[in-house]
Amino acid sequence: MHREVATSSYLTSLMAIFFLWYLGCLIEPFFVSGTPPTDDGLCALMGGDTWFLNPVNESLGFILADYGFDVWVGNVRGTRWSRKHITLSEHDRAYWNWSWQDLAQYDLAAMLGYIQNETSSKVLYIGHSQGTIMALSAFTMPDIVKMVEAAAFLCPISYLDHISSTFVHRAVSTHIDEMLLSLGVHQLNFRSSIGVHILDSVCDGHMDCGNLLQGITGENCCFNASRVDYYLKYEPHASSTKNLHHLFQMIRKGTFAKYDFGWWGNLKHYQRLQPPAFNLGSIPESLPLWMAYGGNDALADLTDLNRTINELKSKPELCYIESYGHIDFILSVNAKNDVYSDLIRLLCSREGTSSS
To answer: For position 19, what pLDDT does the model report?
Structure first.
């Protein structure tokens, strides 16, 4: 089933898989999986189909459906499945005037609201990479977090100043985000000729991009490399250059904050010179959180993650796998046993509470 949801003039999509039978302890919980664009390495360029790219017995979306969950898969604006707008075309510059901040405040909020209205239940949320930064910021907003029963984060990111990705460091140091904006390139699409040229300019003569995935995400131990060509039929999706710029701002400044428009722009948007930081301490202590992270992840760095955890009021349950990289948590052939079994345990523990 496919549904379009209006989010601040954008029409984003939700895909749902419904099963009429239930297994084990799972009676009526609902699950929303958000991997909104995954980013040029921060997984801001991936769509909701990422949850289903592996075989049925290895893909989290299918596994949860088999356990009896109603699985709702979010696709934020800019992805292949969410390109509509009430008045704008994807060819318009204004269409791409957004960052993950808007995805959290509008897209995620609208999806959660739609699911809650359809089911009369709170939502069990799962996100990977950009899906986690969206959630962590959105959950600081009382009107959004009240719709969530519990949240599970794979490769959680908020602070980004300790990432070790060689490709991202190179892109940040060359200010490629600012260069693209100044040239009027507002859609970031690595399937386009401009996108390929961007990749070449970052790599050429400066770093070995023979294994670009590893250069971006770190070494991944356990996904099936023979399926890369298959994955590339679906990924990456497009995102906005402004989204990339916002992420790079955070890397340069070491902040978890709203988009920096510059002094005058900040005064206009925020009535202050600097963009406001997201207060992780305002996420309710009562919200159950679960986080899975890996020792080889070049994007979700352990130092940054510890800073995030220390600012939370609650103590999230943690699942650490030393050998896992950024992509392993969604595409590893072993993730069902290594990661998802513990995740499903958390969801089972919330069974029956989401409808209260």
So the answer is: 34
260, 297, 301, 328: which one is catalytic? 297
- The token duo for 179 is 């260069």
**Catalytically annotated residue among 326, 332, 338, 354:** 326
Interval 40-83: pLDDT, tens:
333 344 456 778 888 899 999 899 888 888 888 877 787 766 76
For the chain, give the longest Cα–Cα distance: 58
Of the residues 129, 165, 239, 354, only one is catalytic, namely: 129
Whether 129 is catalytic is: yes
129 exposed, middle or buried (CB, 10 Å; 0-12, 13-18, 19+)?
buried
DSSP-derived letter for residue 1 is -
Asked if 301 is an active-site residue, the reply is no
| Tokens of residue 20, six digits | 């009429």
Residue 196 has pLDDT above 90, yes or no: no
Which residues share a beta bridge with 16?
A: 72
